[in-house]
# Entry
Amino acid sequence: MLAAFDTPPLWGQSLISQIRVEPSIVVDLGAGEGELIEAASRRWKSARLIAAERNTSRLSLLRSRVPRAELLNTNLLSRSAAKVLADGKPATAVNPR
# Structure
């Protein structure tokens, strides 16, 4: 089992505030409790949000915190996360793990 590291809320907000582009897609790989994707949701209202997490209990928390995010229950070593982005649109990867 891989160790989990949850991003503290202020770090998530700080990291998102440093991004100087207006992304059409934001991807949070290993979203955990959703601090980064939630901060992205507040900043980029029209961006497509994708959060990948393998822990199903964390997915439930993510669903309640960021209802508009697309959630993937996936092992990031599989191909399912990459398939979501197959439409060819550019993405800003947030929180790659």
